[in-house]
Input
Amino acid sequence: AAGVIQSPRHLIKEKRETATLKCYPIPRHDTVYWYQQGPGQDPQFLISFYEKMQSDKGSIPDRFSAQQFSDYHSELNMSSLELGDSALYFCASSLAGGGSYNEQFFGPGTRLTVL
Amino acid sequence: QKEVEQNSGPLSVPEGAIASLNCTYSDRGSQSFFWYRQYSGKSPELIMFIYSNGDKEDGRFTAQLNKASQYVSLLIRDSQPSDSATYLCAVNNQGGKLIFGQGTELSVKP
Output
């Protein structure tokens, strides 16, 4: 079965640079979530989109922005990168607006390293 | 206090034994509960979900939910070394976002 696709899988950036992470949800899934997982920590919710509209927002820095496109893929844009942004970034997708009873399936993640 | 609490472990069990993982949550309005398995450096993999009080079984895994006690558990029967991983409990209150516990590290010894 098709899974969530994320690219790139690894990314190395310098401080103050920008980065763009991409997520392609499971076919027919209409809701995308972004999570950040620091070393030794649990995943933290950043932001979600349903039908190309932002549906919820968590602890996402103002330096980050995201959007969902007409083909349901999503991009997370990160500017003025800081050392503390080094983490695993996961995208997850679900069906039907991502209500409380819909399972979320995670992509393989993008490992971002900021030097 | 975190919204979702788990014992961080490590929990060590011998091969073939039952591993019991526990999770408590603070929001009584929580509606759905998920167990994910995560190997080091990999993404969370959905194992079980449960919405109603009681038990739900899927193969070697059983999820248990007690909303009155705000308690969720995961039992793994006939534990195998390949089950060694971090198990994340996640709660979905409303709107879809998952709130995770800090995870329990499970080690199954051959």
